[in-house]
Specification:
The protein is of the alpha/beta class and about 290 residues long. It has one domain: Rossmann fold. The protein has 11 helices and 9 strands. A 7-stranded mixed β-sheet has the order 5-4-3-6-7-9-8, with helices on both faces. A two-stranded antiparallel ribbon has the order 1-2.
Length: about 290
């Protein structure tokens, strides 16, 4: 833990072991239901989109929002198996993308590409020290792991503020961060299923929109805000159907109990987004340079 300039201790967030518990079940398992690009976050649907097209649309949205097109250097905080990094260099002509992950499987997947435009680091954002500033930062689906559960609001905000302060320091003046995160809607922290916290996402908790706004105040201005919870409900429903269709294959890889847990988790998540208990926030934040 560290002490911020406000005097409140920041929390450590999910440990590498907790991240690997969820994400290091292996590419063969996740590929059964995520699809060929291994994009594990809410898609962005328009009429006629299949899941793969909607996932690419989501990445393109974040690339535009953070101003990545044609830039020299971009950072992906929580880079997954690299789908955003690859899209940035191939579609948006970013010369070099650095990705941060705590998952060994994800890091190996990106490193196996042997693409000199892609640099993956098995490290936390807390430990990241770039050699020079970035032109753009994107973070999709990592923010949910930055604090552990049952923390006072002040400590959550202090941790998020530390992240925003780091991002601001890493960016060139006037540059932007495009953030996507699940957040609490009408659901309260004490109502979260013990099944989720024990069997799916240990050592993690969600933010509220107010906590994000307070943490970014004075560091970034909010340029755009979207709540696309319907997109995540639709994404989870499609993932759940795909996993159910390949249930025997999934069980052969991770065991029947774990395959069943993941299908249950996806259906519970879809219901949470549909009911408004969970939100899916997409926020464009521009560095403040007074």
């Amino acid at each position: 833990m560290e002490t911020t300039h406000e005097g409140t201790t920041a929390a450590a967030g999910a440990s590498p072991a907790a991240i690997e518990f969820h994400y290091d079940l292996g590419r063969p398992f996740y590929a059964l239901w995520l699809g060929p690009h291994l994009t594990y976050s809410a898609a962005m649907f328009e009429d006629g989109d299949d899941l793969e097209a909607a996932q690419q649309r989501k990445i393109d949205h974040h690339a535009r929002e953070c101003g990545a097109l044609g830039t020299r250097r971009a950072l992906d905080v929580g880079c997954g198996w690299g789908s955003t990094m690859r899209r940035l260099v191939e579609r948006h002509q970013v010369a070099h993308v650095t990705g941060l992950t705590l998952s060994s499987d994800q890091a190996r997947t990106i490193a196996d590409d042997e693409d000199p435009r892609l640099e993956v680091r098995l490290e936390s954002w807390r430990d990241h020290q770039p050699v020079e500033p970035y032109d753009a930062i994107v973070s999709i689906g990592a923010f949910e792991h930055f604090v552990e559960r049952d923390l006072p609001r002040a400590r959550k905000v202090a941790t998020y503020r530390e992240f925003f302060a780091s991002c601001r320091a890493w960016l060139h003046p006037g540059s932007a961060l495009s953030l996507q995160t699940i957040a609490y809607g009408t659901l309260r922290p004490e109502q979260v299923s013990a099944f989720i916290t024990a069997e799916i996402f240990p050592e993690s908790d969600l933010p509220t929109l107010g906590e994000i706004a307070d943490a970014a105040a004075g560091l970034f201005e909010v340029v755009r805000l979207r709540n696309d919870r319907a997109d995540y409900a639709r994404t989870c429903r499609q993932w759940a159907r795909r996993l159910a269709a390949r249930r025997a294959d999934a069980a052969a890889i991770v065991g029947e109990a774990r395959a069943g847990n993941w299908e249950r988790f996806l259906r519970m998540s879809a219901a949470g987004f549909e009911a408004g208990g969970l939100d899916l926030l997409r926020i464009t934040l521009r560095r403040i340079d007074a």
